[in-house]
Design goal:
single chain; 552 residues; six-stranded antiparallel sheet; four-stranded antiparallel sheet; 17 helices; 12 strands
Length: 552
């Protein structure tokens, strides 16, 4: 035994076991996110049953989706006042999504299995995903066109409803396009006219002719706006024409306008291929859709877009600064105590909590630098700030500062690994030190620079705390990129996947409804980081092979 301990084999097994446990934990976490995230989009069956309320004995009809079941002790239920028999040890209760939040006042409710009747799955039960108030559960009864009831047979009702719903959604998309694109462009141009006039006033160059020109521009834009507003009013009036009458649990009838419905399906009547098609469409809608209901419904496209743009802008800023700083420290700076102090400071900077960078970014970048930019370049917009407020540029710059030590250290290590013989050979052939550095050494160290960028992207994409102070918001009205010059608007606020997860998971008023959405968003964030890292790794490997072949 002593010989075995002295051989070092126990430490090898210990290290191997620790690595194995770590790998299992990582893959277990990814598997949990994968299952919960992808399960969010599958059309779950809708059950119908009767429930006897334990406190009053009153019977009620229940229609909804089973979300989860859990087993509790009978004593805990008896302590809560539930009349469970004394000899019953375990009790099962079910969390069912009832929907119809505007009618019942709550989305989810627990039901004790002992007081539930037989579960049925009627084929005609439908789920309506609404633009407000969450999902709606019920049975379609009839269609309304204005005040007129359509005479349709039982087999004709649902196909006609789907056809009219598709028409309603097309009109809604047209309304949103007019509001966000065309009217948004007019508002942007109107604001430009106002700022140009204000700039002329500040420069005391506003002549009567120039003022008349500004007035004419406003009149043209307002005429365009009036035409679009009339078109919007027509579309809205037409979209409110159709409605469907649904029978909810308990037998009451509720009328739902089709312009309030995003999509509708009958999960109990769907075949497996139909569910697969629905799953793909729902997943695509989640990726490319816009959020609703305080981020608890709809898609996450603005958050994905904001995360990608912020990481790309951050990469553009951190790479040259980090590489130049590393080159100076390794190749030009005089070795001594001052340089050692600088290196220690860089290493310590990597361990500073990220929220500190957020406070620094808010105070220095936003208020000091941004305020100075507004005073110098955008005085006509004051007192409304342009760059003196949190936005995409300051969020990216804060992340660049946060990840700068990673790039510096990786680049320095790459430069240090270049053999001295390569430098000496270049100098012996007559090249200057600068030529040797930029044409020989730096290209060979490019893979190390890309490694630093990969690590920077991995850290920056998942940061949340500093971004809440310097540019990331719960809901951003517009994307940072559009068709208006300068096309990339660095001053705009953005959404971010990490902050979206925090907001939905911890700030949502409907925690149960948001649970699966949190897993789905976390899954997309993980996949996005993997894609960004794989892209950078591919570029690094190609550069490594290129310069290896050239050196051979």
């Amino acid at each position: 035994m002593n010989k075995w301990w002295k051989s070092g084999a126990p430490w090898i097994w210990l290290h191997g076991g620790a690595v194995s446990i770590s790998i299992i934990m990582v893959f277990g976490l990814l598997l949990l996110i994968l299952v919960r995230g992808f399960g969010h989009f599958w059309p779950h069956p809708v059950l119908q049953t009767e429930y006897q309320v334990p406190a009053t004995g009153e019977r009620m009809e229940v229609i909804g989706e089973l979300r989860r079941s859990e087993t509790l002790t009978g004593q805990s239920m008896r302590d809560a006042g539930i009349p469970i028999p004394v000899d019953q040890v375990l009790v099962t209760r079910h969390l069912i999504k009832l929907g119809n939040r505007d009618i019942a006042g709550r989305d989810f409710m627990y039901f004790i299995d002992d007081f539930m009747g037989d579960w049925q799955y009627p084929r005609n039960v439908a789920v309506l995903e609404r633009r407000e108030w969450g999902d709606f559960f019920g049975k379609p009864i009839r269609l309304l066109e204005g005040d007129q009831q359509l005479t349709l047979g039982g087999d004709e009702l649902w196909p006609e409803f789907q056809r009219r719903l598709a028409r309603s959604n097309q009109m809604f998309d047209e309304i949103r396009r007019i509001e966000r694109v065309e009217i948004g462009n007019i508002n942007f141009r109107l604001e430009r006219v106002r700022l140009n006039q204000r700039r002329a006033e500040l420069r005391e160059s506003l002549t009567p002719e120039l003022e008349a020109e500004f007035k004419a521009q406003r009149q043209v834009l307002q005429a365009e706006y009036s035409e679009l507003q009339q078109r919007l009013n027509q579309l809205r009036e037409e979209s409110r024409r159709d409605a469907i009458v649904m029978q909810v649990a308990g037998g009451d009838e509720v009328t739902v306008r089709l312009d309030q419905i995003v999509k509708a399906w009958q999960p109990n009547a769907m075949s497996i291929p139909a569910k697969v098609v629905f799953y793909a469409q729902d997943f695509a809608g989640f990726i490319f859709g816009f959020p609703r209901e305080a981020n608890t419904e709809g898609g996450i496209f603005p958050a994905i877009f904001g995360t990608v743009v912020m990481v790309l802008v951050m990469s553009v800023m951190v790479t040259p600064f980090g590489v130049l700083a590393a080159i100076y420290l390794r190749e030009y700076a005089k070795q001594g105590n001052l340089l050692k102090t600088i290196r220690i400071s860089v290493y310590n900077l990597a361990g500073v909590p990220s929220i500190v960078f957020g406070v620094f970014g808010l105070g220095f970048f936003v208020y000091l630098v941004g305020g100075a930019i507004d005073q110098a370049a955008f005085p006509e917009a004051l007192p409304a700030p342009t760059f003196g407020t949190p936005g995409l540029f300051w969020a990216s710059l804060t992340l660049a500062l946060l990840t700068l030590p990673v790039v510096i250290v990786s680049t320095e290590e790459g430069l240090a690994r270049i053999p001295s013989t390569i430098r000496e050979g270049s100098l012996a052939l007559g090249a200057t030190k600068a030529e040797t550095l930029w044409k020989v050494v730096v290209p060979l160290a490019t893979p190390a620079m890309m490694t630093g960028l990969i690590l920077a992207i991995a850290r920056a994409a998942g940061e949340v705390a500093p971004l809440m102070l310097v540019g990331v918001v719960k809901l951003a009205p517009t994307l940072p990129i559009d068709g208006n010059f300068p096309f990339l608007h660095l001053e705009r606020k953005i959404m971010h996947l990490g902050f979206h997860i925090y907001d939905v998971g911890f700030q949502s008023p409907h925690a149960e409804a948001a649970e699966q959405l949190v897993y789905a968003t976390a899954l997309i964030l993980v996949l996005l980081i993997v894609v960004l890292n794989l892209t950078a790794i591919t570029i690094r490997n190609r550069l490594r092979e290129k310069y290896r072949a050239e050196s051979d």
